[in-house]
Design goal:
9% strand; nine-stranded mixed β-sheet; 30 helices; alpha/beta; Serine Threonine Protein Phosphatase 5, Tetratricopeptide repeat; six-stranded parallel β-sheet; Rossmann fold; elongated; 4 domains
Length: 711
């Protein structure tokens, strides 16, 4: 629609005032024009720019919407509307605005770039890459475009290509803070931790107050067992940006790693309170080793899952092809298909599965590790697929295409986990097993594997999943795990030749002040005794060892009575258990694989069972091993039992004898029996699915599975 000459003159004059730094004069002219005719699109457009220049984003958006609803609107108005919508978090609305701008003006760099960013914000990274690469062809020297391409590649789990894009951005702009920071993320994903630290340091040199980069740097330091330095980074981040999501939980976990206990209880209580209010106070894993109850842990997991891994639109599943003789196709998903605690427990299960009824398919999403365990695992599966360079959506689609019936997540919310795979629905039935000892809080995980010790009848509502309770213990064990024939003598291990050896090989973050108090009282009451702890890979000058020695001294115990076990190969580690007398477990988060190892090696374990899944795993194992008397339920009973055993060599010898028989007689170490039990659970879940019945809690007996009354 053509404008009158006078209107055009007034618009031109308003434009001159605006460009000349007199927006109030321009605004007065434009408002007068619109009072006479509210349908003048260029007037609304210029008013929008004036509002935007003075920081009135809401006014700018409102006026651009008016402008773009009228004939005669320029392509630039659609572009700027898209940009402000993108800035205010409305990426979905921004996309058609950018598309309309290019429909009217042809493709131009700015619109293509912003369209790519909008798709990226929506998680549509392949579409984002198409737009960003088209933009880059127009302006190859755009550092921001290279950077944004890197971000989408990173989101698609292609860290090597992402790294190349970040490097290209930095060649064009060496002061690109975000490129340095994201380059660190990509390097960490590639396992290049030292290079990642150097990249984070370049980012922090440019922007020392970047809390996100400090948190990412702390994560890499923790991976390198440099926990004291990691704690320093997190404390700085907390001081700079105390509201950073999940930061408090990370800070708590870092303090627990180095056994820095001052203020720990109050911090844990504050986090629990914030979780109860629905806040993003902690990721789920750190809370497992705290006194938080099962319902708090569920709330924490739900908040995190909804924020980071929301369920994606339900996909269709291809019809069963009739192949495999009607076998149920199990997909096991993990980053740990190598010499790792999870594989040390599970390798024999894979070998014992009934191949007349089940097909086994592995999806390995961790960086490839070539070792003897990997070779063993590859041989145990019908197919072993490396998917570490695939996106979550692609891995899920690959599993669906392969007809996986039941997808078993062996990682949950532990290090290197990929819950997004299951958010995209890899299979009709999805199961949380072994890696994460608690509920994942996700609508897309159908079942969690447990047992009657771990989850009682009145606790089923503390789990988002339906609970499959196995007979005996939920934790599988390898009944072929080797123990080296040569046991090192005590002197070689730094232990006294005669004194009583209490041992705890749990990670140090599981040690709490209350249990350490008990241990120190035991040392005081048992002359010549020592406490044998696991250093966990951190150097003597960094981490928990120095802190625990100081804590012992503060309690009147000679720090020399704390002896440190260094990391060594598993078979040798199992052999050295013979030189300990009693394993003292930690509350809140017990020994899990560590308990199985101790029992397999013949070392009695004394545990304190709590109110959560993670705090009852050792109790589950001890009961399955036929040693329920080693399960206590409060600190006083735990202390009394430990003291009694330390003073009763005959009782301890009898326990060792029973453990020796348990290796061949106990259901705990009968891997073929465990395989049949978990297969019954899988079959029961699949049977309900085939009958189009919703998942329910089920107690699996050594016979047909029975649905619980709760659902």
């Amino acid at each position: 629609m053509a404008l009158h000459a006078k209107t055009q003159q007034q618009l031109a004059l308003a434009g001159q005032y605006f460009r000349g730094g007199r927006p109030e004069m321009a605004e007065a002219i434009l408002k007068q024009l619109l009072a006479q005719d509210a349908g003048i699109a260029p007037a609304w457009e210029l008013l929008a720019y004036i509002a935007g220049n003075r920081g009135d984003d809401a006014g700018c958006e409102q006026m651009l919407r008016r402008a773009t609803s009228l004939p005669g609107c320029s392509p630039e108005a659609f572009f700027y509307l898209g940009r402000i919508l993108l800035q205010t978090g409305s990426a979905g609305e921004a996309i058609p605005a950018f598309q309309e701008a290019m429909a009217r003006a042809g493709e131009f760099f700015e619109a293509l770039h912003e369209l790519g960013v909008a798709h990226s914000r929506l998680g549509e990274h392949r579409r984002a890459l198409e737009c960003l690469r088209a933009a880059l062809r127009m302006q190859p020297r755009s550092a921001d475009t290279h950077f944004n391409i890197g971000r989408s590649l990173e989101a698609l789990n292609q860290p090597a290509q992402a790294l190349a894009s970040y490097d290209a951005a930095l060649q064009l702009d060496a002061a690109h803070i975000h490129a340095w920071a994201n380059r660190g993320v990509a390097l960490a994903e590639l396992g290049r931790n030292q290079d990642a630290l150097a990249s984070y340091d370049r980012a922090l040199a440019l922007h020392p107050e970047d809390a996100d980069t400090l948190v990412n740097k702390a994560n890499v330091l923790a991976n390198l067992q440099r926990h004291q330095e990691a704690l320093g980074c997190l404390e700085t981040a907390a001081r700079l940006a105390p509201g950073t999501p999940y930061l408090q939980g990370s800070l708590l976990h870092a303090r627990m790693h180095v056994c820095e206990w001052d203020g720990l209880d109050s911090l844990a209580r504050e986090i629990v309170a914030r979780i109860g209010q629905g806040e993003k106070a902690s990721i789920p894993f750190p809370m497992l080793a705290t006194p938080a109850d099962a319902r708090t842990l569920l709330a924490c997991a739900r908040t995190y899952a909804l924020d980071k891994h929301p369920a994606q639109p339900a996909p269709g599943y291809p019809p069963r092809d009739g192949g495999g003789g009607g076998k149920i196709r199990l997909g096991y998903f993990s980053a740990d298909f190598h010499n790792h605690a999870t594989s040390q427990l599970m390798a024999r299960l894979f070998e014992c599965h009934d191949r007349t009824r089940f097909e086994l398919h592995a999806f390995a999403f961790g960086r490839p590790v070539r070792d003897a365990m990997r070779e063993r695992l590859v041989a145990a599966f019908d197919s072993f697929t490396e998917v570490h360079e695939h996106s979550d959506a692609d891995i899920a689609a690959l599993a669906r295409t392969g007809g996986i019936d039941i997808a078993i997540d062996l990682k949950g919310f532990t290090q290197d986990a990929r819950p997004g795979i299951f958010a995209h629905r890899a299979a009709p039935i999805q199961v949380n097993y072994l890696g994460f000892p608690g509920s994942m809080g996700c609508d897309f995980i159908d079942y969690i594997v447990a047992d009657d010790t771990l989850v009682r009848d009145d606790e089923l509502d503390a789990y988002a999943e339906k609970v499959l309770r196995l007979p005996g213990s939920y934790q599988v064990n390898d009944n072929t795990k080797p123990i080296t024939g040569q046991v090192p003598d005590r002197a070689a291990l730094g232990l006294p030749q005669d004194g009583f050896v209490f041992a705890c090989f749990n990670n140090n973050y599981k040690i709490t002040p209350a249990i350490f108090d008990v241990w120190m009282r035991l040392l005081a009451q048992v002359p010549g005794s020592v406490l044998w702890l696991f250093r966990g890979g951190s150097s003597e000058g960094d981490g928990a060892s120095g802190a625990l020695q100081a804590q012992a001294r503060a309690r009147g115990v000679d720090p020399a009575r704390l002896v440190w076990a260094e990391r060594m190969p598993l078979a040798e580690h199992l052999a050295r258990h013979a030189q300990a007398d009693l394993f003292l477990d930690t509350p809140y988060c017990n020994a899990h694989t560590t308990c199985s190892d101790a029992l397999w090696a013949g070392l009695p374990v004394l545990t304190l069972a709590g109110d959560t899944f993670a705090s009852r795993v050792a109790a589950s194992l001890l009961r399955a091993a036929g040693l329920p008397e080693l399960v206590t339920h409060d600190f006083a009973a735990y202390e009394n039992a430990a003291l009694d055993l330390a003073r009763s060599p005959q009782r301890l010898a009898a326990l060792r004898e029973r453990l020796s028989r348990a290796r061949t007689e106990s259901p705990l170490f009968d891997t073929p029996l465990f395989a049949r039990r978990i297969e019954r659970a899988y079959a029961a879940a699949w049977s309900r699915h085939l009958r189009q019945l919703a998942p329910v809690h089920m107690r699996i007996e050594d016979g047909p599975a029975q649905a619980d009354s709760a659902s």
